[in-house]
Amino acid sequence: MDRASQTDHTGHSTRRRFMAASAALVAAPALIGTPRSASAKAELQGSARPRFARFKLGTCEVTILHIGGSVVENIQSTFGVGAPAEEFRALAEANFLPADKSFSTLAPVVVNTGSEVILFDTGISASGLIPALDAAGLKADQIDLVVLTHLHPDHIGGLRSGDAPTFPNAKIMLGRVEYDYWAPLGNEQVKANVTPLIDKATFLKGNDAVAWGIIAVESFGHTPGHLAFLLESGGQKLMITGDAANHHVFSLARPDWVVRFDVDKAKAAQTRRSLFGRLADERIPFSGYHMPGAALGYVAREGDGFRYTPATYQFSLNG
Ligand SMILES: [Zn+2]
After folding, report:
1. Where do the structural domains in the chain lie, given as residue ranges?
2. I need a labelling partner for 117 at 20 to 30 A (CA). Which of 26, 64, 179, 305 fits?
3. Where are the alpha helices (DSSP H) in the chain?
4. What's the 155 CA to ligand 1 centre distance in angstroms?
5. From the first residue on, what is the mean pLDDT of each consecutive set of 10 residues in the chain (319 residues)?
6. Residue 40 has what pLDDT?
7. What distance in angstroms lies between residue 9's CA and the mean position of ligand 1's atoms?
8. What is the CA(120)–ligand 1 centre distance, in A?
9. CA end-to-end span of the chain
10. Could you tell me the distance, in angstroms and rounded to a whole number, from the CA of residue 43 to the centre of ligand 1?
């Protein structure tokens, strides 16, 4: 049957209703073009996103900060170097994403164990990080320990405010392999932000404890000494995955796709398979530094890669 000529439950022809609606649409541009009524009760305030997410994990309290946000153009040249353009576009479309742009955010994690406040990664600058901490009710001098997943600028930039350390009371922990890779390269960011703190730093390798219930997990590739961190409290787990995967679709559904920022591209792909394979098999939730929204979710094995499912209310059930 021709859908346009069906009658609805009122007995009116839907075709007639359709035509009436079309007439209204023709008139619509005039309405859209009308200036906002003087009787509007509130100014437009601009789009907004939540500044942080906080939840309990066993006896710990976890706060995921949401910093910044910038549009990245031409994303295939970042997340799918050399992949067939048609496949890239189809994967984007299947996930309701544009194939040409992405929106990049940063998500440092604060873990309050009850006896220590630990910050994982520090953003691009102290001027970006401090307001984010502030919004979450945290002060720089309350941070006891800063842990670095790796030494890229968007993870170490917040360590110093001008000439002073941003976190006056904090110890620092970072990967031995990571520092040994960057230090001889004379990288300006590492020299300015990390080297001045190195005397009081503790170097980590895989399985080293950062605090009670938190261990380093080797996840080399994105950078040569990249570390993830597994937090376990009261029988619950959370993996802080840093930059092991930087796009929730392209890098998880296609873990082998080459990512421009990965220093060792083959190793990074191998790590995505092993790390996220473990998270899928053990059903461990994770927080990724550049993951969208709350930066908290799960992976399941699907096809030759992984399907990402953002967390919804799972952590609200923890009280
Ligand atoms: Zn990063």
Report:
1. 3-32, 52-318
2. 179
3. 14-32, 76-79, 85-94, 126-135, 153-156, 176-182, 188-193, 250-253, 265-281
4. 6
5. 41 44 47 63 93 97 95 97 97 98 97 98 97 98 98 98 95 98 95 94 98 98 98 98 98 98 98 98 98 97 98 96
6. 81
7. 57
8. 12
9. 54
10. 36
Question: What's the token pair of residue 296?
Answer: 């908290």
State residue 9's pLDDT score.
Answer: 43
Distance 313 CA to ligand 1 centre (A): 27
Options 3.40.1160.10, 3.40.605.10, 3.60.15.10, 3.40.630.10; CATH for 52-318 is 3.60.15.10
Distance 34 CA to ligand 1 centre (A): 44
pLDDT for the residue 18: 43
Interval between CA 83 and ligand 1 midpoint (Å): 22
pLDDT of residue 3: 41
| Separation of CA 179 and ligand 1 centre (Å) | 16
pTM: 0.88
User: What DSSP state is assigned to residue 222?
Assistant: S
